[in-house]
Design brief:
The chain has 1 helix and no strands. The chain is mostly helical and 52 residues long. It has one domain.
């Protein structure tokens, strides 16, 4: 995830196309944690690393 201050393209790094006020602006930390957990679960189901 890019730093909130990265708002312009720079040497193949990720950036926010719309400036953010700060961390947490996109969503709650709980929602981010759920997204990460779901992504890990999906990845483990497809690459055989279940439980890691």
């Amino acid at each position: 995830m890019p730093h909130p201050q990265h708002t312009a393209p720079y040497a193949r790094r990720s950036y926010w196309s719309i400036p953010m006020d700060g961390p947490g602006t996109l969503g709650s930390p709980e929602a981010v944690a759920q997204l990460i957990a779901a992504s890990r679960f999906q990845q483990s189901a497809t690459d055989g690393t279940a439980g890691i």
